[in-house]
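Worked example 3. Consider a protein that binds 1HE.
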Amino acid sequence: MTKNKANSNLISLEFTGDAQEVAVIRLTRPTKRNAINDALMAAIRTVFETMPSHVRAAVIAGDGDHFCAGLDLSELQDRDAGQGLMHSRSWTVALDRVESGPVPVVAALHGAVVGGGLELASSCHIRVADESTFYALPEGSRGIFVGGGGSVRIPKLIGASRMADMMFTGRVYNAVDGEKIGLAQYLVPKGQAFEKALELAKRIAQNAPLTNYALMHALPRIAEQNADHGFFTESMMAAIAQSAPEAKARVKAFLDGKAAKVQAK
Ligand code: 1HE
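Given these inputs, the predicted complex is written out as structure tokens:
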């Protein structure tokens, strides 16, 4: 892996893959269980805003025994309503850079994925959880509310009623149940989340960039449109994607017997 000089003591950024096409972002605050303070959230935003153009996919992971303990609660004190609003908006912007940024992002989850940690994970495109993972929204117990886009993104994964239950009752989902309800798309043995996430990111990086762009930017919008608008937007996106030279080359390679077939599992 190649290290980037943007590394700080809160986050690290490295590049891997034959063409350095996968960015690996690690939260490096394990003594505080990777709790997100303002500086860490700003670093996440900067990483995605300044991603080099050779990067095609990213993995985000956490050092230590936990992915992320959420908001750094020590910074919550002494904030008035206006400052609270601005703080939440700063999370909105930073996590939008993850979700709607330059490349698809795979989250490698283990241990606690709680509060703002779950909000960070839900801004990623794919979540791979190992068996040690657990999910919670302790905001309900702390007398606060989600503020990092959780009420927009988490219901899309598990439904508003399950999210409300997690906050009303403090319910904690373990890794197996979390995968069943849709908090993660992949469940792997303990200690293997990063390896699997990297494998997926390398696979994603091989896609035509326009296909990945469509999946990040067209699909979520189409999913929220009414059917008539959705069918139309889909057709527009399909026409743009198939007109790209790379798409034509890939289809020709298949027709010439030079591209992989879909394999039954
Ligand atoms: C923290 C934080 C934190 C740990 N802010 N300092 N999030 C929460 O309510 C979750 C709070 N954390 C926990 O429940 C536990 O720490 C864990 C289950 C994540 C991990 O437990 P454990 O036993 O491995 O670690 P620990 O001993 O509890 O914590 C180690 C240290 O990290 C300790 O500090 P130390 O100085 O005593 O060593 C903890 O105080 C510190 N620490 N989590 C600050 N979150 C935009 S809105 C989002 C709103 C939210 O995210 S609310 C949910 C906040």
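Take a moment to read the result before moving on. The mean pLDDT is 95. The longest helix spans residues 81-99.
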